[in-house]
Please model this.
Amino acid sequence: MNKPNEVVLTKKDFESDQDVRWCPGCGDYAVLAQVQKILPTLGVPRENFAFISGIGCSSRFPYYMETYGMHSIHGRAPAIATGLKLSRPELSVWVVTGDGDALAIGGNHFIHAMRRNIGLKIILLNNRIYGLTKGQYSPTSELGKKTKTTPLGSIDRPFSPVALALGAGATFVARALDTDLKHMGMVMERAAAHKGTAFIEILQNCIVFNDDAHKALSDKATRPDAAIYLENGKPLIYGKDKNKGIRLAGWEPELVGIGQNGVSEKDLVVHDESAANGGLAFFLSQLEQPDFPVPLGVFRDIEAPVYEEMNQELHANARAVRGKGDLSKLLNSGSTWTI
Amino acid sequence: MTTMQASGVPAKGTAASASGPARPVEELDNVVIRFVGDSGDGMQLTGTEFSKVVGEAGHDFTTHPDYPSEIRAPVGTLFGVSGYQIQYSSKQVFTSGDSPDVLVAMNPAALKTNLPDVKKGGIIIANSGAFTEGNLDKAGYKSNPLDDGSLDGYQLFKIDIAEFTANALRDSPLSKKDVGRCKNYFALGVMLCLYSRPFDKEVADIRKKFAKKPDLAEANVAALTAGYAYAEASEMFPITYQMRPSLPTPGKYRSITGNSAAALGLVAASELSGVPLFIGSYPITPATDILQDLSALKHHNVTTFQAEDEIAGICSTIGAAYGGSLGVTTTSGPGMALKTEALGLATILEIPLVIINVQRGGPSTGLPTKIEQSDLLQAVYGRNGECPIPVIASYSPSDCFDCAIEAFRIAVKYMTPVILLTDGGIGNATEPWLIPDVKDLPKVDVKFRTDPNGFQPYARDENLARAWVRPGTPGMEHRIGGLEKDFLTGAISHNALNHQRMCEVRAAKVAGIAKDIPPCKIDGPTSGDLLVVGWGSTFGAITQAREKAAAAGKSVAHVHLRNINPLPSDLGDILKRYKKVLVPEMNLGQLSRLLREQFLVDTITLSKVQGKPFMVSEIYDRIIELC
Model:
């Protein structure tokens, strides 16, 4: 938190002078506002934030932040951010990306960032469409989706960004919804507090090219039955009347009514974010509409060795064992002879 | 005693059949030796060790390792042959030599593939035990060349190296397989004796090198000793050779490859500037050594990052450079192609970065372990948009040290990515390096801007460079990116005239580096019949060919370019002072194109794309044809 003699930052301090150029009604606005709201509360000096993005609608994000920032090239933001964080561990480095940027052209960098557990905060705005190129299917578009490049319906099976992140070994994985600001804010705070790679998928609406892609969730009337809010240590309960739950039938999820057929809360799966085994988190990542409610919140939050810290240790150990490097000694090392 | 001039081959019969220490010793000026065997025979090590020994004896030398892209090709096959050639001399040495005076062949395949290069009448030392029916068959020999008289034109020495090594190591605790691996030290021992080199220092070096495996160390020492003793005691060699030291500049030397020199140069640039070094790279032949060398230097504040791919290699480096590190990424041709888009980003961001391309044969995967200079146009032009990048090229292994520092000097002064071209020949070849005194190294000045007063991200200094601002600097938060930006504020700008202005200013910035590079050094007359223009690793062959032609009375000069983009500003004038311009290149004429384009001069290309360096004679012959 802020020390007494430090300037207290506000949301305004994080708003740049650039006009925001997303389409009116775009879900990205809400994400930008939440990020600008959360950052002043983190106790980090503004100059220590860096926002790195790739290409796509979401990747315009850094221009609107009054922080250090780089709008780079398609898919490569995690790689650039990795170099920055590794060389400057004291900085708070955020990556803003989209479903095409992170999962298609940048898929390799995405999984390796997860695997390394480097201290990046990665926000993926998933609108399940290519917006900036005006409406082609993305790696998260559903089977059968008709777009400009799939006029007969898509035959590509979609990625689950959460499942992919988990499979790549991510230590913090969460999902939020662009229209549920309070919950999104909570998830962002949790991500900011995590050590290592923190990944947030935000289900975001593209009003122009894929409107209502997440309608069942964003519509307040249907959300209680379409979404299930994950709470650590609590059973998986959802529904308007909080009377529905999920239990295990073998390895399969089963939707049950609490109080029906002798089912009680005790029979339900209890969420455990920090379970050493990633099985539960992966199980949750497979719950999708329309058959199941979509989990929102923190899937997984575990402690693991942090990449940039291990690198600093390697450096410290090398100096401890060999002493601070001396250039002259280095040049004169190896097998030498004098003439 | 006969003194041979510039040849390692004595005429047959110069020595009477002598024995033991009384054998005659012949004085040589120059010798070219090639060690060849299976990839697993350890010929690279034998060659490296031999070059170290001759360097310590005060000889100048140059080596050329030539190895297949298979790690362990099937034993005895023609395509599995690995070679290491060294030329050392009592004078200055510029190349690894055109054709070997001595061939050490560990098996029939090695003999078969290398015999055509050996000087007529040269020495062949053959590991006779490996000339079995099976191996002869694999090499395509119908009969054993060691016995059928087909080598009558050479001085053939048959030694069953494996058998002798096994005998010498009868009491070693090593397994039979490991004992077999020691035979390269037996071969080294033979060569040390034949060329009158002391072997005590080598014994000490072996014990140091294998300090953690004492059994192996002692086995290698025993093999070396046995080889030396055998050559000394047997009456096999009628004569041994010695050579005066080449007496180069007095000082402290070490043997160095281009890749190691580049790694040291990068560390030097970091220490000279006080800015930490970051390398983000993906392993690729023949550039990997640079990443490996730097990985062991963390106590020099070097951060090494083995990225998930070539793109992440350069992108992580861009991130680190943005954060205020000296960023370098290393690669070879195909990796360079993958880095192309990010090079454009670094150019428009205007941040300092060094990209080292250790060139190999292309296109595509091409000839991964072979030498070529065919990425020149890729380096100068190979990007989308108007995307000027300075390009410099090393001409020798030790020059990689200086070039690495120079690349960073340009990168930070002009806030630009800089491409440094070397090649697999320079990268892997060794030569003696006069170790510089740190206080004599050039300055690399870095100033990070920290004053927010009047700060504009794309305001420029007298060199057209913008300021380098580290994230974390209060009051200077700003955004940069790959979209065209306003010439002053750096905000996105699609303004038509602004784009023209930015393209022109980026070009002018790089062109302006010409005023910051030394004038061309002309080797030979300042005007005349023929100018040979070269770049990169052809330096040695061109130098020797020109000297030979000059000695034959030809009016021929040589300019070797280190700066290729921009070219030195006096080059245009120099080109016009000669009747003809010859450009030898290990490509189909890429520098020729650049010279024609920029100076409207005709050039004559001498092209070689065979995965092998130029021979002196190839360039000499062309010079003679032209003047």
